[in-house]
Each structure stands twice: as structure tokens, then as C-alpha cells.
Amino acid sequence: MSRAPMTLTDAQKAEVETLAAVLTAEQVADYFGIGRRTFYSMMQRDEEIAARYKKGKARAIGAIAQGLINKARSGDTTSMIFFLKTQAGWRETSKIEHTVPESPSSLDLTVLSDEALEEMLAVVNKAIVIEATATGVLDLEAERFNAIM
């Protein structure tokens, strides 16, 4: 034997409209001491409950929106920006462009002094030794390079 589906009284249905202005459907269900699924089922079965819930939400949204518009019209910059972002599609974006200077494709070593070349070679050799130590492999090309120099 199944139970009869739960319903709200006319007074409770009117209360749904008032509560919807400030509560979610889940909170309205909690207010009446019923389960959330039960309240959703009631709104599906009884169009009046669903209509009153929607009407209560719409009235609250309308009242708040009207206050926002009034503040925006009176010159409140924050209200203006909020309204334009949410209703007119305004976005705050920053375009950052970054260019990397082009590297020279070749290096003219003829303009460097012997001391500068020796210093560069020492840095390269040190890097090769560090890499060889870290990997346990000594690059044969580096050995050939050193033999030529």
C-alpha cells in the first residue's frame, strides 16, 4: 500500500513565493521539513507550487536589479561596471605583447681579443666537464675541439 503524495496547504503555497525570494529550493524544502527530492517532486506535480517559487525568485531578482540600475544611473561607478559586465558583455582584458630580440645567426670571433677567446673557451670547457661529470659521459666532440685549440 503506497502513501498519498505529500502536498502543501494553500497557506504554505503562498509562503513558498515569499521564501523563494531569499532561499534556494533546497532551503525551502528544509524550511517545510521535507526532503529536497520530495519538494522537487511536488513542484513537478503541482504547477502552482512551481509557479509561485519561480514568481518569488523573479520578484526578488527584479527588485535587486532595479536597485542596481538606480545606483548605476545615479553615478555609482561600481554598479555601472557590474551591470555592463553582466548585461552588456563588457570584459576587462589586458593584451600583453612580448617580442624577443633576434639572436645573431653567427658570431664574429675575429673582433675578440685572445684573452676574451681564452676566457670563453674556459667557460665552455668547464660546462663540458660539469656535464660529463653529471652524466658520466665525456663528449668526444669536446675532446676534438680542445685538441684543435
Order of helices and strands: HHHHHHH
Q: Give the averaged pLDDT, no decimals.
A: 86
Helix fraction bin: 55-70%
What's the shape? elongated
What low-confidence regions span 5 or more consecutive residues with pLDDT below 50?
A: none
Largest sheet: none
Counted up, domains total 2
Q: Please provide the count of β strands.
A: 0
What percentage of the residues does DSSP assign to strands (E)? under 5%
Structural class: mainly alpha
- Give the N-to-C terminal Cα separation: 100 Å
Radius of gyration: 38 Å
Total of DSSP H or I helical runs spanning 4+ residues:
7
Secondary structure elements and their pairing?
Layout: H1 10-20, H2 25-32, H3 36-45, H4 47-73, H5 77-87, H6 114-135, H7 140-148
Note down, in words, how this protein is organized.
The protein is built from 7 helices and no strands. The chain has 149 residues and is an all-alpha fold. It has 2 domains: 10-87; 111-148, no CATH class.
Brief digest:
By secondary structure, this protein is mainly alpha-helical.
Task: Offer a few descriptive terms.
7 helices; 149 residues; 0% strand
